[in-house]
Amino acid sequence: TSSNVVVMAPTSSSSSSVLAVAVLLAACVLAGSAAAAGSAPQRFGFFGRVVPPEGVEGRPLFANLRVVLNGGQYTSFVNGEGYFEFEDLAVSSYSLEVVSTAFVFEPLRVDVQSAKQIKVYKANIVPTNNVPVPYSATSGLELRPVAMAKYFEERQGFNILDILKNPMVLMMGLPLLLTFLLPKMTEGMDKEQLESMQRGGIMNTQNQQQQMPDISSFLADYTSGGKKTKPAAGSGKDKEKAGK
């Protein structure tokens, strides 16, 4: 006997259900991708140009330049025309520095808010003092060096004031000046005033000598433990004999 195979043709209702399932799956995939795109943080970028100082050729300068953000988290090299660019940056504040061996550039702070809202300020120590730096969406940010990099101190030349400020010169020069100035100051004074001044000086020196302690007696008391030394026996009799 021969076996008969029966093939059933798909009906219209089954094909419509499969199509509906496919449409639902596609809608779910699109909705999931849209939600993922909406939840992902937006990222932006900015660009600028390094302007060389007058009299300096740009290409040798640009070959040794790097523009970094946040101390090296993002790095951008400078092309032959001096342009640099940063892309794929999250909304945040970044510190911008130019790494150069020949020139010194001023550090900046870049606030990335959106593609059209990028604000640049000078990186001041006081955060309340925000000094804006011009930035435009067409020309970008211009960076100019503020000074040349100095790695050695310049040797100072000869200066007569440095010699006069020397302590040894002052110690020797002031007494000489006093020896010349004091006689001239006392020329217009009377003899009585001079004698009174001299007497006053003598009295002051005597008072100072009386007030100053005797070093020999101090040392003797210190070595003897604070006990006063007694006179030797017979010293009084010898003095009486000598007086007779």
In a nutshell, what does this entry contain?
The chain is α+β, with helices and mostly antiparallel strands. 40% of the residues lie in helices and 23% in strands. About 2% of the residues have low confidence.
Q: How does this structure look, described?
A:
The protein is of the alpha+beta class. 40% of the residues lie in helices and 23% in strands. The protein contains seven helices and twelve strands. The strands form three sheets. It has a six-stranded antiparallel sheet with strand order 3-2-5-7-8-9, with no helix packed on it. A four-stranded mixed sheet has the order 4-1-11-10, with no helix packed on it. It is elongated. The relative contact order is 0.07. Residues 5-9 have low confidence and may be disordered.
